[in-house]
Amino acid sequence: VQLQASGGGLVQAGGTLRLSCAASGGTFSGVAMGWFRQAPGKEREFVAAVTSIGTNYRPSVKGRFTISRDNAKKSVNLQMNSLKPEDTAIYYCASTDRRYGLPPVVETAYAYWGQGTQVTVSS
Prior knowledge:
By secondary structure, the protein is mainly β. It has strands at residues 2-6, 9-12, 17-24, 31-38, 45-50, 55-57, 65-70, 75-80, 89-99, 112-113, 117-122.
């Protein structure tokens, strides 16, 4: 499975960005897809994830970010609204290698990772 993330960039606080992740190879429709992020000097952290059953969000992004998937296009998107400087990070998309009900929030559950896309929010 290969994952290709895109859509990052520089935006002012309060602005919006939409990240996309395209998957190729493997089975897409049954697995969990997630977004993680890593800020400079910090560990990578969970942001949001989705399965066909439901979604999970990091509390600090709930209500501002929306994750969605398109099984026909084998893609997952992260709509980010009301961005804050603390959202600045490299964002990674990831995929599990098995089915889940609700998507996992731990990094170790995800077997495949994209290359990351930079999101910078200026104050």
